[in-house]
């Protein structure tokens, strides 16, 4: 899985922004982005249609991720939701299909459907989202659980709960952690502590926040950006490598968890 991708939450919610959203994703592809993260939930399906427009003639360039809503995640419901997503995305396969968060359907039913979809070639890999270590361990124990390829969780400088035990657990089992809202939805860049590090490298605070999520193996980051200058800035952040001095300063300002803390969600 590519370590850097573009998110699509909030896309498809306003017709006025639609073309800008398609253009942002296309610009990302032109700049070398190889992963797009979407979900049936975003814009009630419209985000997937926007992704389809951006991927017109370029489907093979990307690792495409979508998600099934928990209330659809029964066995039959997941199979049907996948078909709808494939149709909106105008593709015959997803590279990764995630359960958006834990719901009331037994995970075994969702995993059964994921296995069936994989057999049919409609998804290449599957995983979960917003799962903490205990929930992931439970899922791991049921048939198909050991093939969970990713857990997409809230992870950024201000939200480091995943570091306590989820991240090591996943790294040990080669389960990718996909860091969502890596910019804390745009709020992180205003935190003073990022300025010094940014200045040292001649980059922006946003780029420091993104490079920080990419400092660990097995972590994928998926910022969302609609403005072209944001897309360019975010993509360029992949080139920034933070040194020990930077990481120590960031740890001072945003301390890692000192004990188990519940995984937060947005
Ligand atoms: N699995 C889940 O439950 C879950 C939950 C939340 C998010 N996600 C995924 O993760 C993706 C990213 O998270 P997110 O959308 O919540 O938030 P985010 O990526 O942390 O932040 C997005 C916001 O930051 C702004 N931004 C982006 N680049 C910037 C830059 N260089 N300078 C200044 N501002 C910048 C964007 O503005 P513009 O758009 O105006 O450019 C947008 O307002 C989502 O789109 C979605 O795909 C998954």
Can you summarize this structure?
With 266 residues, the chain is α/β, with parallel strands linked by helices.
Please provide a written account of the structure.
With 266 residues, this protein is α/β, with parallel strands linked by helices. The chain has helices spanning 18-30, 46-54, 75-89, 107-119, 133-140, 166-172, 193-201, 205-213, 228-236, 244-253, and strands at residues 35-37, 63-68, 94-99, 123-129, 148-154, 176-180, 219-221. The protein starts with 17 loop residues before the first helix and ends in a 13-residue tail after the last helix. The structure holds NADP nicotinamide-adenine-dinucleotide phosphate (NAP). NADP nicotinamide-adenine-dinucleotide phosphate (NAP) binds at residues 7-9, 37, 100, 129-130, 152, 180-186, 189, 206, 222-227, 230, 233-234, 266.
From the structure above, extract its key features.
10 helices, binds NADP nicotinamide-adenine-dinucleotide phosphate, 266 residues, single chain, globular, 38% helix, alpha/beta, 7-stranded parallel β-sheet
Kindly provide the radius of gyration, computed on alpha-carbon positions and rounded to a whole number of angstroms: 18 Å
Question: Helix amount, in percent?
Answer: 25-40%
Number of strands: 7
Structural class, from secondary structure content? alpha/beta
Mean pLDDT, to the nearest integer, reads: 97
The SSE string, one letter per element, is HEHEHEHEHEHEHHEHH
- Bound ligands, each once: NADP nicotinamide-adenine-dinucleotide phosphate
Uncertain runs:
none
Distance between the amino and carboxyl termini: 24 Å
Strand order of the largest sheet: 1-2-3-4-5-6-7
Number of helices in the DSSP assignment: 10
Largest sheet: 7 strands, parallel
Give the overall shape, derived from the CA principal axes: globular
The amount of beta strand, in percent, is 5-15%
């Amino acid at each position: 899985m590519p370590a850097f991708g573009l998110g699509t939450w909030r896309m498809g919610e306003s017709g006025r922004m639609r073309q800008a959203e398609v253009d942002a994703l296309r610009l990302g592809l032109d700049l070398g982005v190889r992963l797009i993260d979407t979900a049936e939930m975003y814009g009630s399906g419209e985000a997937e249609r926007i992704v389809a427009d951006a991927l017109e003639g370029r489907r093979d360039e990307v690792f495409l991720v979508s998600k099934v809503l928990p209330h659809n995640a029964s066995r039959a419901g997941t199979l049907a939701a996948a078909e709808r997503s494939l149709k909106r995305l105008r593709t015959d396969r997803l590279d990764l299909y995630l359960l958006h968060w834990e719901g009331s359907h037994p995970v075994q039913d969702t995993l059964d459907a994921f296995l069936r979809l994989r057999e049919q070639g409609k998804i290449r890999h599957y995983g979960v989202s917003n799962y903490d270590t205990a929930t992931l361990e439970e899922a791991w124990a049921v048939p198909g659980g050991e093939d969970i390829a990713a857990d997409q969780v809230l992870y950024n400088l201000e939200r480091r709960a995943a570091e306590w035990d989820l991240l090591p657990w996943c790294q040990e089992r080669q389960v990718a952690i996909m860091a969502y809202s890596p910019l804390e939805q745009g709020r992180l860049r205003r935190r003073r502590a990022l300025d010094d590090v940014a200045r040292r490298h001649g980059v922006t605070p946003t780029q420091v926040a993104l490079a920080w999520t990419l400092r660990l193996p097995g972590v994928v980051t998926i910022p969302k950006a609609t403005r072209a200058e944001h897309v360019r800035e975010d993509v360029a952040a992949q080139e920034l490598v933070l040194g020990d001095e930077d990481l120590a300063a960031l740890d001072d300002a945003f301390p890692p968890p000192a004990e188990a803390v519940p995984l937060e969600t947005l």
